[in-house]
TrEMBL record:
PANTHER family: NA(+)_H(+) ANTIPORTER NHAA, SODIUM ION/PROTON ANTIPORTER NHAA-RELATED. Its main location: membrane. The chain crosses the membrane at residues 30-47, 67-89, 109-130, 136-157, 169-188, 194-211, 278-299, 311-334, 346-367, 382-401. It comes from the Bacteria. Na(+)/H(+) antiporter that extrudes sodium in exchange for external protons. It comes from Phytohabitans aurantiacus. Residues 414-436 are annotated as: Disordered. It holds the Pfam family Na_H_antiport_1. The lineage of its organism: Bacteria, Bacillati, Actinomycetota, Actinomycetes, Micromonosporales. Keywords: Antiport, Cell membrane, Ion transport, Membrane, Sodium, Sodium transport, Transmembrane, Transmembrane helix, Transport. This is Na(+)/H(+) antiporter NhaA. Belongs to the NhaA Na(+)/H(+) (TC 2.A.33) antiporter family.
C-alpha cells in the first residue's frame, strides 16, 4: 500500500530505516533516563540527610594538574568534561540527521528547527517577565530540553506514536541542545583568551583530517580530542563546546565519492554506537548526581525556594513556555507554508510533544551554574526550580501522550501493518528511503 503525500504535509511518514534507528535510540535513552533520574534523586536525598557534609566534600574534591589549570573539583569535571561527551554524541546525531537522515530534505528539517527556536525564545521571554532584571543572567536556564529524560518518557508512554513524531522530538531536542551550547559559548564566556582558542584549532584540524580519512585508532584520536578540550577550556569558552566541534568533523557517510547519503554508514554512526552508552549511562547520570544535591530544608524550604522570582521564571518557562513556543512555532510554519498535518496526526500530538520539551534537566542545570555561580543561593533556587519544572512537564506530557498513544494504537490497528517479504511494514512501502 502506498500512501499519497503532499509536498506541503507536516510530519510525513519517514523511511523504515530511520524508524528502526529512532526506535533503537529510544530504547537506549530509556535506560539512560532511568539512570539519570536515579542519580539525581540519590544526590538530592544525600544532600538532605545528616551526612550531607560528606556529599559536599565529595563534590568539592579537587583532582587534576594545577600547572595546566586543571585542578578542578569533581563537580566541575562532570560539568566541563563528562558533558563534553554528551555534546559530542548530540553533535553526531544532529549531523547525521541533516546529512543522511530524513531531515536532509529542507522541507522536513524546517519544522523541528523552527520548533526548537520557538522552544528557546518563548521560555526565555517568560523567564525574564517573572524573574525580573536582577536575575536576568539566568534567562537561558529554561531554554534547554533534556534528551535522555524526554526520550525516556516518550519511549515508555508513546510507543504507538507515528515515527515522524518520534523523529521530530529527537531532532528538536538535539537542535535545542545545539542552540544551548551556542548560547553558552556566546553569552556565558566572561574572560576570553584568544591564543588558546586559536591553538585549539590545530588538534581539531588534525582530528578532522584523520576522521575524514576514516582513521579509528583511539590512541591517535583520543589525545587530539583531549588537547582540543584542554585548549578550549583554557580559552574561557565552556569546554563542552569542544565536544560539538569534534563531532562536526566526523564524516557521516562511508565515502563522499560513493553516492552521498546512500553510500552507507560512516564514522559518525560508529562513534555514536561507542559513545552513546557512555554518555547516557555514565556522563549524564554522574553530572546529575553531583549537581542535583541541593539542601532544601523540608517543605518550608522547598516552598520558599519555589517562591523566589528566579524559580518562578524557570518553572513558568519550562512548563508553559516550552509548550507554547514549540506548538506556536510549528503552527506558524504550517500557517505560512500552507501545510497540513499528515493523516492521523493532530495538533494535540504537537502540544503533547511541546509539553515533553519542557523537561529541561541536564543543560538547564549547567546553565544555572554558569549564570549564577556554583553554590550560590540563586543557583540552588534554579536547581530546585529545574527539578520541579521538569517533573511537572514530564507528568503533564505523560497524561497527554497516553491519551494520544491510545488514539494512535486504535488507528494503527485499523491499518495494515503486515510485513512483506523484504521485512518492511506495508505502511512504509513507497517511502523514498525505505531501503527497499
Amino acid at each position: 500500500m502506498v500512501r499519497a503525500r503532499s509536498a506541503t504535509t507536516l510530519f510525513r511518514l519517514g523511511s523504515w530505516i530511520e524508524a528502526r534507528r529512532i526506535a533503537a535510540i529510544l530504547r537506549q535513552e530509556t535506560i539512560g533516563g532511568v539512570l539519570l533520574l536515579a542519580a539525581a534523586l540519590l544526590g538530592m536525598v544525600w544532600a538532605n540527610t545528616p551526612w550531607s557534609a560528606r556529599y559536599e566534600a565529595l563534590r568539592d574534591l579537587r583532582l587534576g594538574s594545577a600547572a595546566l589549570h586543571l585542578d578542578l573539583s569533581l563537580a566541575t569535571w562532570a560539568a566541563d568534561g563528562l558533558l563534553a561527551i554528551f555534546f559530542f554524541v548530540a553533535g553526531l546525531e544532529l549531523k547525521r540527521e541533516f546529512v543522511a537522515g530524513d531531515l536532509r530534505d529542507p522541507r522536513r528539517a524546517v519544522v523541528p528547527v523552527a520548533a526548537a527556536v520557538g522552544g528557546v525564545t518563548v521560555p526565555a521571554v517568560l523567564y525574564l517577565v517573572f524573574a525580573g532584571r536582577d536575575a536576568a543572567s539566568g534567562w537561558a536556564v529554561p531554554t534547554a530540553t533534556d534528551i535522555a529524560f524526554a526520550l525516556a518518557v516518550l519511549a515508555v508512554v508513546g510507543r504507538h506514536l507515528p515515527g515522524a513524531l518520534r523523529t521530530f522530538m529527537l531532532t528538536l531536542a538535539v537542535v535545542d541542545d545545539l542552540i544551548a551550547i551556542v548560547i553558552i559559548a556566546v553569552f556565558y564566556t566572561r574572560d576570553l583568551a584568544v591564543t588558546p582558542l586559536l591553538g585549539a584549532l590545530v588538534p581539531l584540524a588534525v582530528f578532522g583530517l584523520l576522521v575524514q580519512r576514516r582513521v579509528r585508532s583511539w590512541w591517535l584520536l583520543l589525545p587530539l580530542a583531549a588537547a582540543t578540550w584542554v585548549l578550549v577550556h583554557e580559552s574561557g569558552v565552556h569546554a563542552t563546546v569542544a565536544g560539538v566541534l569534534l563531532a562536526f568533523t566526523v564524516p557521516v557517510v562511508r565515502s563522499e565519492k560513493a553516492g552521498g547519503p546512500d553510500a552507507g554508514p560512516g564514522l559518525a554512526e560508529h562513534f555514536e554506537h561507542r559513545f552513546r552508552p557512555l554518555s547516557a549511562g555514565v556522563a549524564v547520570p554522574v553530572f546529575a548526581f553531583l549537581t542535583a544535591g541541593v539542601t532544601v530544608g523540608g517543605w518550608s524550604g522547598l516552598t520558599h525556594a519555589l517562591s523566589e522570582p528566579v524559580a518562578v521564571g524557570v518553572v513558568a518557562g519550562l512548563i508553559v513556555g516550552k509548550a507554547v513556543g514549540i506548538t506556536g512555532a510549528t503552527w506558524l510554519v504550517a500557517r505560512f507554508t500552507r501545510a497540513r498535518l499528515d493523516e492521523g496526526i493532530s495538533w494535540a500530538d504537537v502540544v503533547a510533544l511541546g509539553m515533553l520539551g519542557g523537561i529541561g534537566f541536564t543543560v538547564s542545570l549547567l546553565i544555572g551554574e554558569l549564570a549564577f555561580g556554583p553554590g550560590s543561593a540563586s543557583a540552588e533556587h534554579v536547581t530546585v526550580a529545574v527539578l520541579t519544572g521538569s517533573l511537572g512537564a514530564a507528568l503533564l506530557a505523560t497524561v497527554l501522550l497516553r491519551l494520544r498513544n491510545r488514539a494512535h494504537r486504535r488507528l494503527q490497528a485499523a491499518q495494515s501493518t503486515d510485513l512483506d517479504d523484504d521485512g518492511v511494514p506495508d505502511v512504509y512501502q513507497g517511502s523514498r528511503a525505505d531501503g527497499g
